[in-house]
Amino acid sequence: MLVAEGEIAARVAELGRAIARDYARANPVLVGVLHGAVPFVADLMRAMPIDLTVDFLRASSYGAGTTSSGTVRLVADLAIDLADRHVLIVDDIVDTGLTLAALKRTLEARRPRSVRACVLLDKGGRREADVTVDYVGFTIPNVFVVGYGLDYGGLYRNLPYVAALGTA
Ligand code: IMP
Ligand code: MG
Predict the structure, then answer these.
(1) What is the pLDDT of residue 72?
(2) CA-CA distance, 39 to 104, in Å (whole number)?
């Protein structure tokens, strides 16, 4: 066990308050990244007592999740137009940052007013892409984790806590 259910709940409530303060009256679009961010988005948006819109996309995960052009292929795209909107990408975890950096570039091309990012977990030590993560739940060591949306081979997303996937 790396992050207990109660710790997640407390931190998500804090993040929600902070983000709601920053986006008060902005009617932001929360862009959840399927499938890993589903529990996080569900909890985070309920901790934000402001007007907001939520939508989801699914990014491909071949290679590092990016093409040489630095854009990410969307297996499922958003339904709503981001033009003139304040966009907050919500993802489960940032590791190398390549996926998030590419996703940011892809969404920035749609002429939003702003694009920021919020992740539950940050494996800070492994960053390869120069990407700003504006809101971070927890910084964790470089271990493979599952639970609260994060999977290993499609399993363990339903765990209510975050655990390191150990071999022992
Ligand atoms: P990045 O492009 O290296 O930042 O990769 C981020 C993506 O890799 C995340 O959105 C996850 O889908 C996946 N990922 C990275 N680390 C883990 C982990 O520890 N457990 C499960 N998925 C992970
Ligand atoms: Mg992911």
Answers:
(1) 83
(2) 21
pTM for this predicted structure: 0.95
Our answer on whether the CB atom of 96 is closer than 6 Å to any ligand 1 atom is yes
- Rounded CA Rg of the chain: 15
95 CB near ligand 1 (under 6 Å): yes
CA angle 42, 37, 26 (to 5 degrees): 60
| Measured distance CA(147)–CA(138) in Å, rounded | 14
DSSP assignment of 16-53:
HHHHHHHTTTT--EEEEEETTTHHHHHHHHHT--S--E
User: What is the per-residue pLDDT for 106?
Assistant: 95
The tens digit of pLDDT for each residue in 51-106 reads 999 999 999 865 555 555 667 889 999 999 999 999 999 999 999 999 999 999 99
**DSSP label of 113:** S
How far is the centre of ligand 2, averaged over its atoms, from the C-alpha of 95 (Å)? 10
Pocket flag, ligand 1, residue 145 (CB < 6 Å)? yes
- The Cα 9–Cα 66 span in angstroms is 32
